[in-house]
Every structure is written in C-alpha cells, then in structure tokens.
Specification:
Helix content is about 25%, strand content about 20%. By secondary structure, it is α+β, with helices and mostly antiparallel strands. Helix 2 runs parallel beside helix 5. The C terminus is likely disordered.
Length: about 625
C-alpha cells in the first residue's frame, strides 16, 4: 500500500555484477519465499513473486566448478534487514535444484511470475512447466510493458480457483468435482483436479473431494490429508485406517443395534450389518424398507439384472450414481444412472464441443431430458449450434436476408431459384434464375433494337412497376407471384416472375434514370497510361544523352585550349646542350691571307651559329 516505501527500498538496493551471464534467480526465489520475517509476508495473503531478468539462471551442480558440493538446504540465509545474502551460505552451498524450488513454492503457497525478455522465453517456459502455478510473460527490452502484463496476469490468477490435495505418504486416490459459478463446466487442472474460471468477489464455487484407500501399507502411515484452495485456510482431514479389520474379530468392538444403523443393525468396523429380524430393512444404515429389493434400481430397457446401469449403488430402492474416476468432468444422473453429461450431440466445429460449449448451452443428464441440450438465449438446435439472429445472413451494406433469394436457416443462407453464394447473390450457371433472366434480357434487347414480333418475347408480358411489391421478409412479388432479382448491370435491372400459366412477368427499369453512372471501358485508359510512361521514359533518355554529349564537348574544348596555350610559349629547356663545338689550331700562324682567312673563319662561325640556332628551335 505504501508505494513510496517500496520505491525507497528499490533505490537502496546495491547493484552488483558477475562475470558469467546466468543469474542466481532460483536462490532468490527460495529466499523470498522462506524469509517470512524479513520480507514481511502476511500469514493468509496471496503470495506472488515477480522475477524480471534478461538472462538464464544457475542450477544445482554448477557450484562444483568452484568446489562447492554441499546441496542447498532451502532455509533462510538473509540478514536481519533482508537486504544481503549471508556470505556463509553463499560460499558453502550449491545452487538450488528445480525440485527444491518446486517444494518450497508449494509449501509456502507462492506463485512465481517470470517477466523475461524475448530471447530467454523458451528457457523459462521449460522451467515454468516444472514449477506448478508459475507463468512466463514477455518483457520488452526497455520494460515499458511491465505494469500492463503484470496487471493482466494477476487479474487472470485471481479469476482462477483451483484445488490442491496433499496426501504426503500416498495410499489414497483423490477424486474431486466442482460446481463453478454461472453453471459453467469446470476444467481439469494440475494432477487431474478441477478448477473454476471467471471467479470474482462474492462468487461461490463448490468442490467435492472423495478419498479412496488404495494400499494398506501406505495408508497405515497416513495421518492427515491437506485440501488446499489458494487464498483460503487449509482443510486438514485426519485419516484413521482399518485395513487389518481387527474390529471384525473382536466382538467387543461391535455396537449392537447401534443408533448409527437406525437401531436395526450392528455397527461393525464403521459399517452397518442389518439384523435378520428386519428382513425388509436394508441400506447403508439399515434405514430403508426394501420390500422390492433392488428391482427398482434395474433399468427395464437396459442390461437385464444390472444394478444402476453399472454406474451406481442401489440405496433404499433408489440409485445413487457414482462419478467416473477416469473422467471427473463427466456427470452421471438419471433414475437408473443411465444418463451422463457427454451423451448430448456436439456442434460440427473444429473443437467439437458438446452443446456448443458452455457459451451456447449445457447437456442435461436427468431421466426426463437425458441426452438433450438446454440452449442458452440466442441459440437453438439439437446441439445449440444455430444462432437465432439472422444478421449473419445479411450481406454487408444490405438489409435483406440472403439477398432476397433464400431463407436463413441456422445462421446460414439456403438459396433458391438457382442462386448460390454465402448471401445468395450469385446466379449459378444453368439455374432457373439464369434461364428466366436470359429470356427477359433477350426480349428487351430485341425490342430496343427496333425488332417487331420478336420470337424471343413469346409467352412474356411486361408489367408496370406499380405491380412490384416488396414483402416483409426481404423478397419481392409481381402481381402476387414470387419474383426473382436478375443479375444487375449499371444500365438496367430486371425482376422476373412466372404466373400460374407459365407466362413470364418482367419488370424492367433504366438505372441511369436514378443516377447510375455508365460503365467505363478502362482498356484505352490503361493503354494511354502505359504509352505515356514509355514516351516519358524515352524523352528522359534522349535528354540525358544530349546532356552527356554537351558535357563531353565542353571538356574537349577546354582540353584543346590548354594544349594551344602550351604550344605558343617559346622556351628553351634547361637540359638543352648545343651540339656545335668550335676548336682552334694552336699552331696556326696568320699570313698574307690572314684577312681573307679571318673573313672566311668569321663567315664559317656565323653559318655554324645559324645552324645551331635552327637545331635548337627544331626548324
């Protein structure tokens, strides 16, 4: 109730990390269950523990990796504040086993809810199968749905009431039945015991438990049987066995003319033995005057001599029916126990439920209505499989039943006049509707085309629309004769009927007069759209090609301009070396022709320099 205290406690919890991925969730379950004082459990409260995690958990035996071999003792090892797990238990005890967790949860009446992320759902579902009363919920990665899924699961658990019978040493067979609220059939839960759903405040469910001894060696050691319903106090049944029947030998144990036996017999070993002086007295307590013996308990139409159809005992000339041990949900009744709750017909559905299931009806097993279904409001039929509402026979958007061409039977259309379909809105090929409608349409077409004396119009008569009448059940009449609606087009609609002489009566009216649009031939539109798309694609392709050519031409012109600029520059490479070399003879002496010689040498030098210049320029 104190939410703030709860939030404060959460904030004070220290978060620790470990090296491996699995967590010690099972130990946490046991500690939260058995540490009553530290947790603050109330004695008679509904105990629910929520385990929210995104990882799997450790099991018994994994502690051996750390050299820990001592099994977990299932006791409380929290400190006085209930916040820390004692180091002595942590270092000396192995992880708990699934069997130990199951035992603790059952003894402490604790329900475990595993709120798990999607990746670990399969692991915890297998674990939940071994922990009765537990459930697995899918938790989102950010835990945003935590409140909603927990609220729904708790509401589901509160609405279910189930029975648990604990016979610790065995030796007894347990059979139980239940009367659930609103006369609903009980379900079979764990260990074959009944459970009731849809429970709420101030709603009562009755459980009947029968204990039958099986083996004396175990029954002698059995002292108590615990009957438990979650949320209520346990019912403790003290068991005292008389397997050895020593009381039959010791006459001092006999109670003569016991009041327990209606003072007409002796009480021996808890049973009555009626006195021979009262030959007509019988029964379990000698309280029946059975002048006719067991004859009233024998079914005249059954097996000759069989008492109570083999499913009961004759008490006071009346059958006391016994429940089927192998099928506790089957109720047995009738004057001769000849009826049961599974003799009624079932609906032809995939689940094949008797009398349509608890929502539609219930099976009666008394002698008057043996094998008959008692249908609930809104359903009828032998197996309560027929909804009385005719809404399922109306086509969506229409108010006529079966399109006016059939009748609604058991929630389904029974079509007439050759019509078919779920709502009788399809004129079947070769059906009567097609034949009559074809004749009427052919006659009208002949007349519209200017034909005179059309042979197709023989034995036909056009009727004024004023003779057209709608009947209450959605059908139509022409001059008092049942009419059929022909398959309509946007241009026209036909209603046809036949009189007693076989004359075809036709009512036709042009639907265009009431605003029906002309039918549109969509083929030209489709061709135009396809052609337009192709043309658009071609234009885009041409535009892209022109742009590419313009781009290439522009790049080429830029390249040529750069080339021209480089060709106009008159530069000499720094690596150029003049190939012309002039050598002078050191022994040469100038003579008479020195001037002439000098002139010739200068001319030769000038020509050599000119040639070298031409070579350097490449001309």
């Amino acid at each position: 109730k104190d939410r703030q205290a709860f939030n404060d406690s959460l904030q004070q919890i220290s978060i620790s990390s470990n090296i491996d991925t699995p967590e010690d969730s099972l130990t946490s379950l046991i500690q939260a269950s058995v540490c009553t004082k530290q947790i603050g459990w109330k004695e008679k409260s509904r105990k629910v523990i929520v385990v929210a995690t995104d990882a799997d958990c450790h099991f018994a035996g994994e502690g051996r990796l750390a050299g820990i071999i001592r099994p977990h003792d299932g006791l409380c090892h929290l400190d006085s504040n209930g916040t820390d797990y004692l180091d002595s238990a942590f270092r000396n005890q192995d992880y708990p086993s699934v069997a130990l967790v199951k035992k603790v949860l059952q003894e402490r009446r604790v329900s475990a809810i595993f709120a798990i992320t999607k990746s670990n759902i399969p692991f915890y579902r297998k674990l939940s199968e071994r922990l009765p009363g537990s459930s697995v919920l899918e938790l989102t990665d950010d835990s945003s749905n935590a409140v909603q899924i927990l609220r729904d699961e708790l509401a589901r658990q509160v609405s279910i009431t189930n029975l648990t019978v604990l016979a610790h040493n065995g030796g007894v067979q347990v059979n139980a039945t239940a009367k659930c609220p609103n006369s609903t059939q009980f379900e079979i839960g764990d260990h074959g015991l009944p459970l009731c759903r849809n429970m709420s405040v101030n709603v009562t469910a009755e459980f009947t438990v029968t204990l039958t001894g099986t083996t004396c060696d175990k029954l002698n050691d059995l002292k108590q049987v615990t009957i438990r319903v979650r949320g209520f106090d346990d019912v403790i049944v003290d068991v005292e066995s008389l397997c050895n029947c020593q009381c039959e030998v010791d006459e001092s144990e006999h109670e003569v003319m016991s009041p327990f036996c209606s003072s007409a017999g002796n009480a021996t070993c808890g049973r009555c033995r009626c006195s021979d002086r009262y030959r007509s007295t019988n029964g379990s307590r000698c309280n029946c005057n059975e002048t006719l013996g067991k004859l009233p308990c024998i079914n005249p139409s059954g097996v000759p001599g069989e008492e109570c159809s083999g499913r009961g005992n004759c008490e006071c000339m009346k059958c006391q029916c016994q429940q089927d041990e192998n099928n506790p949900s089957k109720m047995i009744g009738g004057d001769y126990c000849e009826c049961d709750s599974q003799m009624c017909p079932s609906t032809p559905t995939p689940d094949n439920q008797i009398c349509g299931g608890g929502e539609r009806g219930e099976c009666q097993y008394d002698s008057v209505n043996c094998g008959k279904c008692k249908c609930k409001l809104g359903y009828s039929g032998l197996a309560c499989g027929c909804p009385e509402s005719k809404e399922t026979c109306k086509k969506p958007g229409e108010n006529r039943i079966c399109s006016g061409e059939g009748t609604c039977t058991c929630g389904r259309c029974q079509c007439q006049n050759g019509y078919t379909g779920k709502y009788c809105d399809i004129c079947a090929e070769g059906g009567r509707c097609e034949t009559l409608c074809q004749r009427s349409v052919a006659c009208k077409s002949c007349q519209d085309n200017g034909g005179s004396g059309c042979t197709l119009c023989s034995n036909q008569a056009s009727v004024d629309i004023s003779e057209f009448e709608a009947v209450d059940n959605g059908t139509f009449e022409i001059e008092g004769f049942p009419a059929m609606r022909c398959p309509q087009t946007c241009r026209s609609r036909y209603y046809v009927a036949q009189d007693n002489e076989g004359t075809l009566l036709t009512i036709h009216y042009d639907k265009r007069a009431i605003g029906c649009a002309e039918s549109i031939n969509i083929i030209p539109y489709v061709i135009g759209i396809v052609a337009g798309l192709l043309l658009l694609g071609l234009l885009l392709l041409i535009a892209w090609k022109l742009y590419a050519r313009w781009k290439d031409h522009k790049e080429y012109q830029h390249f040529m301009n750069e080339q021209r600029k480089r060709g106009m520059e008159n530069t000499v490479s720094p690596l150029f070396k003049n190939p012309v070399v002039t050598y002078k003879n050191p022994v040469y002496k100038a003579g008479a022709n020195s001037q002439q010689t000098d002139g010739q040498e200068k001319e030769g030098d000038r020509q050599a320099q000119s040639q070298a210049h031409l070579d350097s320029t490449g001309l």
